[in-house]
Amino acid sequence: LSSRQVTWLGLYTLGVFGVVMVLSSRRNPEHYPPGEEIVYFMMLCIMVAGVAILTVQLHRMRDRLRRQKVELEAALAHIHRLATHDDLTGLVNRRHMQELLENERMRLERSEQDWCVALIDLDHFKAVNDAHGHAIGDEVLRALSRHAHTLIRRTDVLARWGGEEFAVLLPRVRPDEARDHAERIRQRIAQKDDATLPGYTCSIGVACMAASDATIEQLARDADEALYSAKRGGRNCVQLSDHVILI
Known about the structure:
Blueprint: H1 3-27, H2 34-84, H3 94-111, E1 115-122, H4 125-132, H5 134-151, E2 157-162, E3 165-171, H6 175-191, E4 202-209, H7 216-232, E5 238-240
Parallel strand pairs: 4-5
Antiparallel strand pairs: 1-3, 1-4, 2-3
Helix pairs in contact: 1-2, 4-5, 5-6
């Protein structure tokens, strides 16, 4: 019961007992002496008041514990988000992305389905910072993260890999499908027109895994090598790794 309900119930109890005691004393004063009935009623008032006060205190304790639980859950959720997401872009950070990649590698043991990783790097990002300042550079990173997030599939995961690099986990795709998907992302980013920000393009390196015994570090190296190959090839292009990890 709520505190208000307990209060009304206590008043109702006292009222009922008071009426019964008065009627009993009037009808049979020998068995129910008025003096004793008054003492009993006073004792009853003390008991009911004590129960009511105790109930109110218990409600306050319960409410305080409930608030503390909610605050603790919110704090834990905030800590978890800080540990798994990037502050600037709000995307998954590199550490959590590596955990997701490892989970995908273990899933490969059961499903035997190919999956790929695309590394996205902003072209000439240092020149953007030098010409417009780091605040505009941060806005470019946030804009790219928001735009790229609208271009991936619902099953994909976009993460900030570090600096101006982003990583996309592409589950259940073949190498050629991953390359085509990365090319669509590159084209849409290059075509994006934002009058408030300087124009930018990106280079993308794609590496795929088709073996559960391969390592995430090896996959990341292949994607990184493909990315640098795209940069050496003139930037604003997609390069698929020559090394597809097979059994």
